[in-house]
Automatic annotation (TrEMBL):
Belongs to the eukaryotic ribosomal protein eS6 family. SMART domains: Ribosomal_S6e (SM01405). This is 40S ribosomal protein S6. Residues 206-238 are annotated as: Disordered. Residues 225-238 have a biased composition (Low complexity). Residues 206-218 have a biased composition (Basic and acidic residues). The gene is DENND4C. GO terms for biological process: translation. InterPro entries: Ribosomal_eS6, Ribosomal_eS6-like, Ribosomal_eS6_CS. One of its GO terms (cellular component) is ribosome.
Length: 238
């Protein structure tokens, strides 16, 4: 829940000066109703509206080249980077807004902030989280414990809507898993057989090529020896 409070007295804020973002500070100085509260500094904006950025250890402003995933920047195009002015993460008097998160509740309720509770609109959807919420064992059926959302319309019969449970282990899911594993085993077996067959064929072809090469070499040798013998006989006749 968000709550905006304006403070005119700067002396109340002096406890936050020189503190960095993510630092936990006792909020007793903010007033009597804040007694016992502990807050965490989560950010803020200076008087020109530039946001504080975690990790920038300075009081002033710096211009950083920011891209997707960085805080204080939302890219408009894919892969876009932009140089933006951001403020350092150290708190000082030049801030106009300081964002605080309550870490520990104090003695009294703060009207409009801690005195009201907003119930969760939706229950958990993941099977393991439903088990955790209702402290169920693995043997219990999760489907009976799903938090249903009421849909009440005027002039119509009241009905409820349940979300689809994610990561629910059913016999069908286990069958799919077994089938996947069986298909994988079949593929590996087939690949091994094909590889062995290919290796056999390759060895056969290499053997045939070797024999052919040896035959060609032997043929060349016979021809060369025949030429040599004919040239010798011709020279002896002369």
């Amino acid at each position: 829940m968000k709550f905006l409070s304006s403070l005119d007295d700067e002396r109340k804020l002096r406890t936050f000066y020189e503190k960095r973002m993510a630092t936990e500070v006792a909020a007793d100085a903010l007033g009597e109703e804040w007694k016992g509260y502990v807050v965490r500094i989560s950010g803020g904006n200076d008087k020109q509206g530039f946001p504080m950025k975690q990790g920038v250890l300075t009081h002033g402003r710096v211009r950083l080249l920011l891209s997707k995933g960085h805080s204080c920047y939302r890219p408009r195009r894919t892969g876009e980077r932009k140089r933006k002015s951001v403020r350092g993460c150290i708190v000082d008097a030049n801030l106009s807004v300081l964002n605080l998160v309550i870490v520990k509740k104090g003695e009294k309720d703060i009207p409009g902030l801690t005195d009201t509770t907003v119930p969760r609109r939706l229950g958990p959807k993941r099977a393991s989280r439903i088990r955790k919420l209702f402290n169920l064992s693995k043997e219990d059926d999760v489907r009976q414990y799903v938090v249903r959302k009421p849909l009440n319309k005027e002039g119509k019969k009241p009905r409820t809507k349940a979300p689809k449970i994610q990561r629910l282990v059913t016999p069908r899911v286990l069958q799919h898993k077994r089938r996947r594993i069986a298909l994988k085993k079949q593929r590996t077996k087939k690949n091994k057989e094909e590889a062995a067959e290919y290796a056999k064929l390759l060895a056969k072809r290499m053997k045939e090529a070797k024999e052919k090469r040896q035959e060609q070499i032997a043929k060349r040798r016979r021809l060369s020896s025949l030429r040599a013998s004919t040239s010798k006989s011709e020279s002896s006749q002369k």
